[in-house]
Specification:
This protein is mostly beta strands. It folds into six domains: 2-276, no CATH class; 287-382, Immunoglobulin-like, CATH 2.60.40; 392-460, Immunoglobulin-like; 466-539, Immunoglobulins (Immunoglobulin-like); 542-653; 661-752. It is built from nine helices and 51 strands. A seven-stranded mixed beta sheet has the order 2-3-4-5-10-11-12, with no helix packed on it. The protein is rod-shaped and about 170 Å long. The protein binds calcium ion (4 copies). One calcium ion binds next to loops.
C-alpha cells in the first residue's frame, strides 16, 4: 500500500509537469507521412508478417535536452522512476526526438549527440524508427534495443525519459502491445558517456527489466502476446555486420540458452540487468547477468545459500568461459561454459568465512581480440546467536515470591557473536504460579538479530506452614453435645502461600467429659502440611435443675411445705418422666407430694414410693411444665427425726447421686444378667449412654441400696484397681490375683 501511495504521488507530479510540456513535445507519428499507415498495419493482424518497412519522412526540429539532477544511483541495477522523469505522449509506433544529448554516446566507435526514443522499445540515433516487427540484427540501422517489439502505449503504460549531464535513462513502464492482451512489460535502457555514475564502471550501456509478460504484438503474428516475430533484445552497429544480442524472445517461461541458439522465454528477463561497453569498434566484452542484487550475498553462520552467475558473449555466435577465484572457505561451485556461461555457487556460512569475502569471476569470450569481463561478488557471513534455554526449578521464599534472571535460564552459546541483550518474558513468580510455567528467552546479538527459546520454570513451595495450638476448656452446653471450631485451638498459623485447616470442627458429648486430645493440620497449596496436638478439657454441663439456693434441704416442718418454689430448669427439650428423691436422711414417714390444687399436664401422672422416698412423674411434658411441677413439690414427715433431708430433683426416669454426678434408674421386670446389661445399653439420658450400674465406692453402694426397690443386676468389675479403690484398701496386689473374683455382686441398677 505504501508503494502504491508513492507511485500515485509520482504520477501526480508527472501529470503536473505534463501540463506545461505536453504541447511543446510532439511525437513523430507514422501516419503523418503515410495517412494509410494504421489501416495497413491493421491489415497485418493475423496475417503472415510481410516486409513492411517505413522511413519517417517528416523532419523534426532537434529537441533541447532538459537536464535533471541525479537523485538515485543504481549502477548495474534498475534506475527507479521518480518525478524528475518526463513522460512521452502515448502512441503506437511513434518516435520521440531527436533529443539533443549533453554528452557523446559511443556506439561501436561512432559518437552520437542526439537520440530518438522509439515507442517500440529501442533507441535510434539518425532517424526515427517505427518498425514494430523486430526483424532482428544485423541491419543498417544503428540501434540500442532493450526490448524491440510492438509496444503500444495507447493501449496502456507510459514511456518516461530523463537526461543528466552524462546519461539518458528511458523507462518503458508497464507498456502493453498492439492488439493488447492485457500483459505488460517494464524495462529500461541507460546510455552514457562511459564515465557516468549511472552506468557500471567502464560501461556506457545498461539494460534492466522488471516484470516482462509479452513478446509479440498482433500485427507480428502474435497471439495473446506470444509467437510470431520474436522480440529482439540487443544492440546493432548499423553496418549490416556487427551486433550483440541478449536473445530473441517469443514465448512465456524462463527458457534461455544464450544469445544464439533457440528463441528464448520472456520471463528469463524478469529482474535481469545487462551492461555493455559499446565503445569498442568490433568485439564487445562479455556481460554478466543473473547476479545477486548489488553483487552482494549475505547469510548467517550455519546457513547455506546457492545462486547462479551467468555471462554472455554477448555476440550470439561467441562462447564464453568463466573462471572463479576466491580464498573464502565454505564455497563450492560448478561452471558450465558455452554461448551461455553459468557458475552455480553454493556458500555455507562458517566460522572460517565469518565477515566479508570476495568472489572473483573472470569471463573471457572467443571474439577477436578476446575480451574479458571481471565481476566481483561480495559475500558477507553474519554471526547470529541461536538462543537456547534450560528448564529450571525455583523455590518460593518466605514472602511467597521468587525472582529469576535470564542468565539462570539461558544456555545460549556466544562463541562467534556478541550477545547484547538477554530478556525473559516472565521473571517474577508467586504462589499462583506453583507448577510449570513456560517462559520465553529472547537473545539479541551484535547483528541486531533476536532469537527466542522456551524454558519451563517449575515453581515449588517447600515452606511448611507454621502452626501453634493452645489448650482450652469448654463446658458442655447442649444435649446434642458441643461443637468447637478448630480455630479456637489455634493461637497462630501462617504460610508463605495460602493454607487450609483440617478438621474445621470438633464435636464432644458427655462421654468426652475430661481431657481430650485433638490433632489439627495446616496444609498449603503445595501439599506441605504440619500437624499439631492440643488438649481440650470438657466440663460437665451446668445442672439442668438449678435449685434456688444450694442443695435443696428442708427441715421437718410437720406440715406440707413447698420444697423450692424458685427452682429453675435449664432445658428447652421436652422431658419424658422425672423423679423427686429424698436422698439424705430419708426416714419412714417422709412424704413428697404435689401442692393441693396443682393440676398435672395432660398425660402426666405422679406416684410416690413411701419406701424409697422417690416421687416418680411419668409421661411427656415440656420443660416449663416440669419446672412448674417441681416448684409445686411439697414435703412433710411424720417421723420424729429432725435431721435435714436432701431432696433431689431429677429429669428423666433416673435419680441422681450428687456424690458422683451419675444418674441411676431402677428397671423392674424379669431379666437375666445378660438381658439387663443389653437393656441398659439401650438407655440414654440427655445424650448420655446408659450401662449396667457398677459400684465403685462405698457411698455409691449405699446410695444404690437405698434406692433399690427389689433385687437387681449390677455390672461387675474385676479390675484390681477399681476393687481396691472401692474397698479403700489393697485387697489385690495385681490384676492376676483379681481375675474373676468379683463377679458375685448382684443388683439391678442402670447407671449413666
Ligand atoms: Ca508498436
Ligand atoms: Ca537464445
Ligand atoms: Ca564479445
Ligand atoms: Ca508454603
Amino acid at each position: 500500500m505504501k508503494n502504491n501511495y508513492i507511485l500515485k504521488f509520482i504520477l501526480f507530479s508527472i501529470g503536473l509537469f505534463l501540463q506545461g510540456n505536453l504541447f511543446a513535445q510532439t511525437v513523430i507519428d507514422p501516419s503523418d507521412s503515410d495517412p494509410y499507415y494504421y489501416e495497413r498495419k491493421k491489415a497485418e493482424v493475423k496475417k503472415q508478417p510481410q516486409a513492411f518497412s517505413f522511413k519517417a519522412e517528416k523532419k523534426t526540429a532537434l529537441k533541447t535536452a532538459t537536464v535533471s539532477s541525479t537523485e538515485l544511483e543504481a549502477p548495474g541495477g534498475f534506475y527507479e522512476l521518480d518525478n524528475s522523469f518526463i513522460a512521452i505522449p502515448t502512441n503506437d509506433d511513434g518516435s520521440f526526438g531527436p533529443i539533443a544529448l549533453p554528452f557523446s554516446y559511443n556506439l561501436y566507435g561512432t559518437n552520437y549527440e542526439q537520440v530518438f526514443i522509439n515507442t517500440n522499445g529501442n533507441l535510434t540515433f539518425e532517424e526515427a524508427n517505427p518498425v514494430y516487427s523486430a526483424s532482428g540484427f544485423p541491419n543498417d540501422i544503428p540501434m540500442v534495443a532493450p526490448f524491440w517489439g510492438d509496444v503500444d502505449t495507447s493501449e496502456g503504460g507510459n514511456i518516461y525519459y530523463k537526461i543528466t549531464n552524462d546519461a539518458l535513462i528511458v523507462i518503458w513502464d508497464q507498456v502493453e502491445h498492439y492488439e493488447p492482451s492485457g500483459k505488460t512489460n517494464t524495462f529500461q535502457v541507460i546510455i552514457s558517456d562511459g564515465t557516468s555514475d549511472l552506468t557500471p564502471p567502464g560501461r556506457n550501456t545498461a539494460f534492466c527489466s522488471k516484470d516482462m509478460q509479452w513478446t509479440t504484438g498482433g500485427a507480428s503474428e502474435g497471439v495473446n502476446g506470444f509467437g510470431g516475430v520474436p522480440a529482439t533484445v540487443g544492440i546493432n552497429k548499423g553496418n549490416n555486420t556487427d551486433y550483440l544480442q541478449v536473445g530473441r524472445f517469443d514465448k512465456a517461461g524462463s527458457d534461455y540458452d544464450g544469445p544464439g541458439g533457440n528463441n528464448d522465454g520472456i520471463d528469463y528477463l524478469d529482474n535481469q540487468c545487462f551492461d555493455f561497453n559499446m565503445a569498442n569498434t568490433d568485439n564487445i566484452a562479455p556481460s554478466a547477468n543473473s547476479l545477486p542484487e548489488n553483487k552482494k550475498v549475505q547469510l548467517y553462520l550455519g546457513e547455506t545459500v546457492s545462486f547462479n552467475a551467468s555471462f554472455i558473449g554477448p555476440e550470439p555466435n561467441q562462447n564464453v568461459t568463466t573462471t572463479l577465484t576466491s580464498n573464502m572457505c565454505g564455497l563450492t561451485h560448478s561452471i558450465t561454459n558455452g554461448n551461455l556461461s553459468t557458475a552455480e555457487i553454493t556458500i555455507v556460512g562458517n566460522e572460517c568465512n565469518l565477515g566479508t569475502n570476495t568472489i572473483k569471476l573472470e569471463t573471457i569470450d572467443n571474439g577477436t581480440p578476446q575480451e574479458t569481463t571481471t565481476t566481483f561478488i561480495t559475500v558477507e557471513i553474519l554471526c547470529r546467536v541461536i538462543a537456547s534455554a534450560k528448564d529450571i526449578t525455583v523455590q518460593l521464599v518466605e514472602n511467597g515470591n521468587a525472582v529469576i534472571t535470564p542468565q539462570m535460564v539461558s544456555t545460549t552459546l556466544s562463541e562467534n557473536c556478541e550477545i547484547t541483550n538477554l530478556s525473559l518474558s516472565k521473571t517474577e513468580f508467586n504462589c499462583t504460579n506453583i507448577g510449570s510455567n513456560s517462559v520465553t528467552l529472547t537473545v539479541t546479538d551484535g547483528s541486531g538479530n533476536t532469537s527466542n527459546a522456551t524454558a519451563i520454570v517449575t515453581v515449588v513451595d517447600n515452606e511448611l506452614p507454621t502452626l501453634s495450638l493452645q489448650n482450652i476448656t469448654r463446658k458442655l452446653t447442649s444435649i446434642d453435645g458441643l461443637t468447637v471450631p478448630a480455630t479456637e485451638f489455634i493461637s497462630a498459623v501462617n504460610d508463605n502461600c495460602s493454607y487450609t485447616i483440617t478438621p474445621t470442627n470438633f464435636t464432644f458429648d458427655c462421654t468426652n467429659v475430661g481431657t481430650q486430645q485433638v490433632s489439627i493440620t495446616a496444609k498449603d497449596g503445595a501439599g506441605n502440611e504440619v500437624t499439631k496436638n492440643a488438649q481440650i478439657t470438657i466440663e460437665n454441663p451446668d445442672a439442668l435443675v438449678e435449685p434456688s439456693e444450694g442443695n435443696t434441704v428442708v427441715s421437718s416442718p410437720g406440715n406440707y411445705t413447698v420444697v423450692d418454689s424458685n427452682l429453675l430448669i435449664h432445658l428447652s427439650d421436652n422431658v419424658d418422666g422425672a423423679t423427686v428423691s429424698i436422698n439424705e436422711n430419708f426416714h419412714t414417714g417422709d412424704e413428697l407430694r404435689l401442692a393441693t390444687g396443682f393440676t398435672l399436664p395432660s398425660g402426666v401422672t405422679s406416684n410416690y414410693s413411701a419406701s424409697t422416698g422417690v416421687l416418680t412423674l411419668s409421661g411427656t411434658m415440656t420443660s416449663q411444665e416440669l419446672q412448674s411441677i417441681f416448684q409445686n413439690i411439697q414435703f412433710r414427715t411424720s417421723s420424729s427425726n429432725v435431721l435435714e433431708r436432701e431432696v433431689v430433683f431429677n429429669i428423666g426416669g433416673g435419680v441422681s447421686n450428687s456424690d458422683n454426678d451419675h444418674y441411676y434408674e431402677y428397671v423392674s421386670g424379669a431379666f437375666t444378667w445378660e438381658q439387663a446389661r443389653a437393656d441398659a445399653a439401650t438407655k440414654t439420658l440427655n445424650g448420655l449412654q446408659g450401662y449396667l450400674a457398677t459400684v465403685t465406692s462405698a457411698s455409691e453402694n449405699e446410695f444404690i441400696t437405698t434406692k433399690l426397690s427389689d433385687d437387681g443386676w449390677l455390672g461387675g468389675s474385676d479390675s484390681y484397681t477399681q476393687i481396691n479403690s472401692a474397698l479403700g484398701s489393697s485387697l489385690y496386689a495385681n490384676q492376676t490375683e483379681a481375675e474373676a473374683k468379683n463377679s458375685r455382686q448382684l443388683s439391678t441398677m442402670q447407671k449413666f
